Amino acid sequence: MTRSEIRAAFDDGPALVSYVAAGDPSADATKEYVEALVDGGTDVVELGLPFSEPVAEGTTIQNAIKRALEAGMTPEAYLDLVRDLDVDVPIVCMTYYNLIYQYGDEAGPEEFVAAAADAGISGFVVPDLPVNESEPMYEACREHGLDLIFIVAPTTTPERLESMLDRTTGFVYVQGRLGTTGARDEVSENTPEALERLQDANVPKAVGFGISSGEQAREVVASGADGVIVGSAYVDIIADGVENDLPTEEVADRLEALAAELKAGARKGLPEPERK
Amino acid sequence: MSEESKRTTGAQSETRAGKFGEYGGQYVPEVLMPAVEELADAYERYVLDNEDGFVDDFRQRIREFGGRPTPLSHAENLSERYGFDVYLKREDLLHGGAHKLNNALGQVLLAKYMGKERIVAETGAGQHGTATAMACAYLDMPCEIYMGRTDVNRQRPNVFRMRIHDAEVNPVDVGSGTLKEAINETMRDWATNVEDTHYVIGSVVGPHPFPAMVRDFQSVISEEMREQSRDQLGQLPEAVVACAGGGSNTMGAFASFVGSARLAGAPEGSQEPAPDVDLLAVEAGGSSLGVDKAEGYAPNSASLSTGTEGVLHGARTKLLQTEEGQIVESHSVSAGLDYAGVGPELAYLVDEGRVEPVNVDDDAALEAFHRLSREEGIIPALESSHAVAYLEEYEGDGPVVVNVSGRGDKDLDTVIEESAARDIAGAPTMEVFEE
Ligand SMILES: Cc1ncc(COP(=O)(O)O)c(C=O)c1O
């Protein structure tokens, strides 16, 4: 298999992977937000396709998903939005399996993966699709040259880790702590240990769940991560914009500034000689 | 990996990886997978193989604490009314007032055997939460219950019961504040505290091994039905009728006849398939069938009869959903049936033609509530009233066994209000007592 675009995004130092929920609070706003995040230094965009039952999500992203669904976001509108995005970084679709499974005329992941590939998606993160249920999705992704990114949890056993690494392309998503997504003030103390387990993985390792500041990004990269994944901290800014009725540009500026802080922080985490 | 090795015992509908045909499976976040695998292992060792005498312990406790066996009562007046023999399996007489204790006690006890230190559970109507709180008080385990805000408001007596048993009750404010949201939130708690916590799921839903394990704890219902039918009827029933929300009383009432029950220590022959017994799953028809796709709402909870295949709460099953795959809000006058999904084994048995899904609307259930109360002296739960209501449509010669999954004390406020509002036949007038 050829080296993926997503993987290549980790080539120039620590990568910033940025999540927002598509359609929160509108498709037009998401387009501006994503472009701002990329201007701020985002290397991979993780664009959430909202599902009504987001079991892996904390309150912040649950509320984002609710706003997006109320504003009418659908899988079709999502693909339109992806086609419409004017960015030159890879886009990962983050969603739950039922939406992928239902899309098109035949049940199963094939049709959505094909449509997503066609729209310009480069890979998938599907939090309710553990590796043991992933066969059809994995096959569909392979067929269309997309990466299927698995989440390694603090509880993941060595046997499960091995079967995940067998199938992971793009990068491996290291869940930094137990529980659900959500911004936290401190980096989980288990992060170095979690990364150490993945020392021999032949894909980049990006840590998510709880990272919200440049300082935390620095710490995570200093612990050996190849990238940081940030979601709830951006969504907090978007939620504040909705609550206070702020203009889209102002929210976009704040998102860009946070992305820049995170990216700079991540760079500082590298040992001196490796910094650019 | 998933289609391998059918277990060898009996006529099993699931494989080791927990699939019922294409249904079932383990669609949960990775953080929970090790706990789910640990549980699957414990299920096989303790529940199927009676390791450390677990099942003996369970059977003794469900007798001594729960009050099993529950009677099979001949409903003389209904039998006369319909012209065939009607028998009632009296889960309303189980401790706590519903079949829920069979599962709750089994799982809390299993959690103890596994060395877990904390219990979480979701509840809709509050019956499963109450049963879990009772079992936790009895077995000395800390207990936290998640319950949608709407359900907290409409099932207050059960909230108080849970609190009195010293359980924490956490109202869930997101979404419509009913069972679906309560399950989501309990999964999130479990994902956060997975190292020492067991999630006592309340029905035959969720990732493997829950659907199989909950069925097996509930299978004491049909195990007794078979014995009691032999002793009291001198034959197996022509049909067994049970309501279906998630489907735990349903699978409990059907499992021995299907031949899928696997709880250790069952009487000789009681887990052999009995293909001549018709199995009818009565769903909540609500106010009308179908899904309003534009509104994302179903005025019913008839996922077996009208749902489409999809993935929810850890399993592939039949669901009420939009064409895009968003799960819709369901409806039933009975909170315990108000759920957009159903157990994967039931979905499979319906496709196989072994279980027939039927449904009964809100009004017919309310009428049946009053009929059983007036004519047999038994106040059924609104959920169970759906099963009782189906007798009006049953066309066979009997005998028929109806599973009365619970008692209706919890529903009195709803029934009085709804009966007056809808002018339900047979409802007593209450106006004179109003202040
Ligand atoms: C008395 C009673 N019957 C039935 C049900 C529905 O659950 P299940 O379909 O799992 O039996 C409930 C749920 O609360 C209940 O309380």
List the helices and strands and how they pair.
The complex is a heterodimer of chains A (276) and B (435).
Chain A: H1 5-8, E1 15-21, H2 27-39, E2 44-48, H3 59-70, H4 75-84, E3 91-94, H5 97-102, H6 110-119, E4 123-125, H7 135-143, E5 147-149, E6 151-152, H8 158-167, E7 172-175, H9 191-196, E8 205-208, H10 214-222, E9 227-230, H11 232-243, H12 248-268
Parallel strand pairs in A: 1-2, 1-9, 2-3, 3-4, 4-5, 6-7, 7-8, 8-9
Chain B: E1 19-20, E2 23-27, H1 33-48, H2 54-64, E3 72-74, H3 76-82, E4 86-90, H4 100-113, E5 118-123, H5 127-139, E6 143-148, H6 149-154, H7 156-164, E7 168-172, H8 179-192, E8 197-199, H9 210-218, H10 220-233, E9 239-243, H11 248-258, E10 278-286, H12 303-306, E11 308-312, E12 314-319, H13 344-351, E13 355-361, H14 362-376, H15 382-389, E14 400-404, H16 412-422
Parallel strand pairs in B: 4-14, 5-6, 5-8, 6-7, 9-10, 9-14, 10-13
Antiparallel strand pairs in B: 1-2, 2-12, 3-4, 11-12
Helix pairs in contact in B: 2-4, 4-5, 4-9, 5-7, 9-11, 10-11, 14-15, 14-16
Bound molecules: pyridoxal-5'-phosphate
- What is the third-level CATH name, the topology of the largest domain in chain B? Rossmann fold
Series of secondary-structure elements of chain B, N-terminal to C-terminal: EEHHEHEHEHEHHEHEHHEHEHEEHEHHEH
User: Which chain pair shows the most residues in contact?
Assistant: A-B, 43 and 40 residues
Mind telling me the CATH class of chain A?
Answer: Alpha Beta
Residue windows where pLDDT falls under 50 for at least 5 positions of chain B? 1-13
Domains of chain B, number: 2
Structural class of chain A: alpha/beta
Cα Rg of chain A: 17 Å
Q: Name the assembly state.
A: heterodimer
Total strands of chain B: the figure is 14
At the fold tier of CATH, the topology name of chain A is TIM Barrel
Average predicted confidence as pLDDT of chain A:
95
**Apparent shape of chain B:** globular
Number of DSSP helical runs of chain A? 12
Side by side, the strands of the main sheet of chain B go 3-4-14-9-10-13
How are strands sequenced across the largest beta sheet of chain A? 5-4-3-2-1-9-8-7-6
Give Rg of chain B in angstroms. 20 Å
Question: How does CATH name the architecture of chain A?
Answer: Alpha-Beta Barrel
Q: End-to-end distance of chain B, in Å? A: 65 Å
